[in-house]
């Protein structure tokens, strides 16, 4: 409960108008999660400013606002008057005000502060300690994993005067943060869980992280107490160095006693974790048990036991409290899964230590005869040495899983390491979507049987959102809201981006998977699907698209060049790949080595390819290309004898296997199908001649996206859609049917907003001169990103759900827009170049119309330096 008088005294804040409310249930900084009766704190963050949502907070039930004076004073007078309906406290800096309040309220009510910090396991240990103490004492605990300089003060808004203990989880993701946290909360009792690799992108090494964590020990008063995880060598070193520096004037340092536990006394099972503890004095031995899963919780339970005893609780009282301790959402939480499997939902976050602990638990908890399936997403924020950690995970997984499903580009390192450690390739799958991961797991579980024995571990860093896979595998998915992490309305709206630039492309791979399945419905089960991945999958990212389409019904891939095929092979794609384009003689050996399928249209190429195959003692598949009226590569259809001769010759050449024959339509995307039917008739004539000669290749294909959607007689036994797979229309005359979804959005952020006087030039050449004072926004995107400069440009983009016109020439890396008509535009706001924002949308088709081109070119020309996120 927050009392207004204490808040004003601590923050030196002032009321904007006479107080309307003097007590508040707590703080909230997110209007999507605010509860009635809370005080909304407007926080300026890296991706937004809470001051933009003040009136939204009021509408959602906030009874108070904590805001920055400079923002209120810059607001229009009418809006300032609206704020007077609610208690509004104005301060210089809301973050500093929260910290000041936290320090003030802790000093005023003086609970005993127990601080938990470390690498992994902080939340579980904090919850265990608080749960034990709350049996006998009024105990406060920081909310979930709100553990930083913003989260701790937000949590302390619910501290009450009667709380005797406050158990706080202290986190750190950059040097100096833990020191500031300790200065703010002034802990009396401290414990470090471990020194495990987390946030190394900012600490650089475990040694630097250990130094940061030692701040907790150094912050304790001489009369305080530090509990040492004596099984962690780095923590033991920290304590030894501390004692050497400080001498005798140090807090009481006590070991948890993990090393003293007899390994044979540890029991790990679905009922929980138990172990025997040798007690001092007359107690003899004591068995501690909880419903926590995994031996990594030995330190969790011991910390709760030791601190409970030190705070005056009897061994029996602590033991009884521990027995009630169970898993937390997203942390090795057991859930019923499909096909009577058991899920180990460990999706809260991931670091090497926690992944290894999860794999150990998976291995120990799988009953004899059951299968062990691990679904792992990426581990983020590991810095320069992340490859080593991924490889270590793969090596360990090889002996602890039967099937390994990996999502994310970096997890390819896990796959390779697992293979080298002995896990067969057919036991490892790399996927790019949550849906594909779940579908593979379902297939394994359905095939393996052993109901009640199979176990699935699900794990990944927060940004990978692996809880979505858990939901798809739950026996009762309707319980997801209650039992999974990140289920609040706020999280449901959040897309976690990991980009190296403020200009990016979002690719919805689930939409691509959906579109492939729609194609499958259109063509039926007897027709194979080849997906065109030319030009980096039309700008969508060839590797991730390849994995997605292969898991959703495609059996073959198509590329334009050998280099495109090589990139897929090097990434582990082993599906058939057809090269549509020209392969020069000097590349043919490499084509054979990579086991790709080659397009042939001349005797000379056939002979050169055969020589390459014979040199490598391998065979290579070929498809014959017939030009029925496109005028590109291929033997002209009127040269029937030459086509038949090539098919015969290729079939007789050692090392060649004639697998297919195909053609390509010039105008299947037109309303008038006359020419398409002419081409089709020419192709069918060639097929009839080949069938009479009994040399027709087994695979026949002609249908691109347009023909797949509008010319069913051209399906034969394979279709090769391209643009439709990405949810884009083949043309204005042939559109994708209902149910197809566009997969690509192109976005940037505003870099600067400023007023330009009338009569001033904008951009190169002074082609645009302001006619009146104009508020412009500068965007960090230009023609070097594929954002067209001339002769025509995009014309406008979306800001706050409204169109903002481009003004002046597009620069290589930047451009300018007029936002004079759009209120409250500021640095960091999202700008949509292709996609939807609110109720407004700019489609690739609309941009193509403005540029005088086709949607293919619009998406394919977004250059590689623009990061793709999924």
UniProtKB/TrEMBL annotation:
From what organism does this protein derive? Ktedonobacter racemifer DSM 44963
**Name by which UniProt lists this protein:** Multifunctional fusion protein
Keywords attached to this entry: ATP-binding, Cell cycle, Cell division, Cell shape, Cell wall biogenesis/degradation, Cytoplasm, Isomerase, Ligase, Nucleotide-binding, Peptidoglycan synthesis, Pyridoxal phosphate
Give the superkingdom in one word. Answer: Bacteria
Where in this protein does the record say N6-(pyridoxal phosphate)lysine is found? Answer: 534
Q: Where is the active site?
A: 534, 764
Chain sites annotated for binding substrate: 632, 812
The GO terms describing molecular function are: alanine racemase activity; ATP binding; pyridoxal phosphate binding; UDP-N-acetylmuramoyl-tripeptide-D-alanyl-D-alanine ligase activity; UDP-N-acetylmuramoylalanyl-D-glutamyl-2,6-diaminopimelate-D-alanyl-D-alanine ligase activity
